[in-house]
Input
Amino acid sequence: RSEEANRAKRADDLLQVIQLAGPTSIKVGQALSVRPDLIAPEYAEALGTLQDRVPPFDNQKALDLMQSEWSASNAAVNAIDIPDRNPVASASIGQVYKGVINNGEKEVAIKVQR
Output
């Protein structure tokens, strides 16, 4: 019984390590989660959360990346406003923010890679 509980704890620990390691590790975790012939059910269940519930990476890092990329671009790109500084979605290789252009006339999606 304690081995089963320990296995579930180790599966959660592995999930945390994979999430911290970055997008390539997340992709590997996603692939393993659908291979019950290769990993124990507890691991498959934990890694299965990577299929549709990848936590966002550091929000300030993403916003800083946008700013540094846009400062090298033209003025039209710099006219994008991001009213809500929190991502609307996140995935293994990036996250998405909602932005507006033309003084709020048009909504745009902004995808930032990890």
